[in-house]
């Protein structure tokens, strides 16, 4: 987004929208004209921008078009026998995985089926970070580097499985024992993914290292995505009214299906949800509208985290941490109200309004217990 130094927040939002409107005038040509890589890149940039405004419908249409173009160009296939040089192959693979990651993010964020099926492509995960990108990070022992792009793609695969097993229409009527089993499997995959990251770049490390003054936007997005996945996975247990491990063990479903509890972390789902929400909100101190790319996309995560904490208070207004959680919720709202970006787009305003409504209900629930 263009942000002229001399312009006010309103001015540069208006200017940026003029550029976007110009780009949108070309959408029909990009979507229905002959497919090419430049057109695909333009569509992916539009999706990235509109995702930051929480504009669900245009994002869904554009990412579906981008996925279709990927297949028309053969980007979803293995590169065996390709006449392209290694850089050309890497570029095509990178574009496919960017489209895939956006598709999976939209699917999980808006609870909509993804455009790309995992059975319909054979291209391998990227072994190298995109050329001249910030996705390659040196490790502290200097033994190599962390490929954050590959890690982002791996997390996107987990997001796809998460949606399919817990949020798709087919998952709505699954027995509780099957839901719990899926939660356990997905949680283990997520923890295995986290362990594959060098220790200094793992999600909880950023929250624990309070002395850090900043985190790269790439790492910030990765960490936000991780905590959001934790919430999305374990929220399915909490939503069934199971606040403690005892509640879970008392359910008849598990007397005949003890294998459902193969991952003991499912007994801690309520605690894991609230801890992930707090961690996500604590990352807000690294957010800055002036120097953080994809600011609008990142805003979504602390908003959802705040709503998660509000929901935990509503469910248990006598929780010992209710005061601390309310302070975190207030901090999130204070931050959002100070950002001009959050007032510029209807989708973001709607999210912020929901956040405030949840907080009001949570405060009322606490007062009712006094």
Automatic annotation (TrEMBL):
Keywords assigned: Nucleus, Transcription, Transcription regulation
SMART domains in the record: Fungal_trans (SM00906)
Keyword Nucleus belongs to the record: yes
Protein known as: Xylanolytic transcriptional activator regulatory domain-containing protein
Keyword Transcription: yes
InterPro entries: AtrR-like, XnlR_reg_dom
Gene Ontology molecular function, alphabetical: DNA binding; DNA-binding transcription factor activity; zinc ion binding
Domain of life according to the entry: Eukaryota
Matches recorded under Pfam families: Fungal_trans
Domain Xylanolytic transcriptional activator regulatory: 59-132
GO BP, sorted A to Z: DNA-templated transcription
């Amino acid at each position: 987004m263009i942000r002229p130094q001399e312009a006010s927040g309103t001015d540069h939002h208006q200017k940026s929208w003029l550029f976007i409107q110009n780009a949108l005038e070309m959408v029909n040509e990009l979507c229905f004209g002959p497919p090419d890589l430049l057109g695909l890149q333009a569509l992916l940039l539009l999706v990235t921008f509109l995702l930051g405004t929480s504009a669900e419908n245009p994002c869904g249409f554009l990412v579906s078009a981008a996925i279709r173009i990927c297949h028309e160009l053969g980007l979803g296939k293995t590169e065996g026998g390709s006449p392209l040089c290694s850089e050309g192959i890497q570029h095509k693979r990178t574009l496919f995985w960017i489209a895939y990651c956006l598709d999976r993010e939209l699917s999980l964020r808006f609870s909509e089926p993804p455009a790309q099926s995992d059975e319909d492509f054979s291209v391998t995960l990227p072994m190298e970070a995109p050329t001249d990108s910030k996705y390659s990070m040196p490790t502290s022992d200097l033994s190599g580097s962390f490929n954050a792009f590959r890690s982002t793609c791996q997390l996107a695969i987990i997001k796809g499985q998460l949606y399919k097993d817990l949020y798709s229409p087919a998952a709505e009527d699954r027995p509780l024992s099957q839901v719990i089993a899926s939660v356990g499997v997905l949680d283990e995959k997520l923890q295995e993914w986290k362990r594959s990251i060098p220790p200094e770049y793992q999600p909880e490390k950023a929250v624990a290292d309070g002395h850090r003054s900043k985190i790269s936007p790439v790492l910030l997005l990765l960490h936000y995505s991780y905590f959001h996945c934790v919430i999305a996975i374990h929220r399915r247990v909490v939503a069934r009214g199971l606040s403690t491990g005892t509640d879970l063990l008392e359910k008849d479903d598990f007397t005949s299906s003890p294998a459902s509890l193969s991952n003991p972390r499912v007994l801690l789902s309520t605690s894991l949800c609230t801890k992930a929400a707090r961690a996500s909100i604590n990352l807000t101190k690294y957010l800055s509208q002036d120097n953080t790319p994809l600011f609008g996309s990142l805003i979504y995560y602390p908003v959802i985290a705040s709503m998660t904490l509000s929901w935990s208070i509503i469910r248990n207004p006598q929780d010992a941490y209710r005061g601390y959680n309310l302070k975190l919720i207030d901090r999130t709202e204070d931050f959002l109200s100070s950002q001009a970006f959050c007032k510029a787009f209807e989708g973001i305003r709607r999210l912020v309004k929901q956040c405030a409504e949840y907080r009001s209900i949570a405060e009322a629930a606490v007062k009712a217990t006094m």
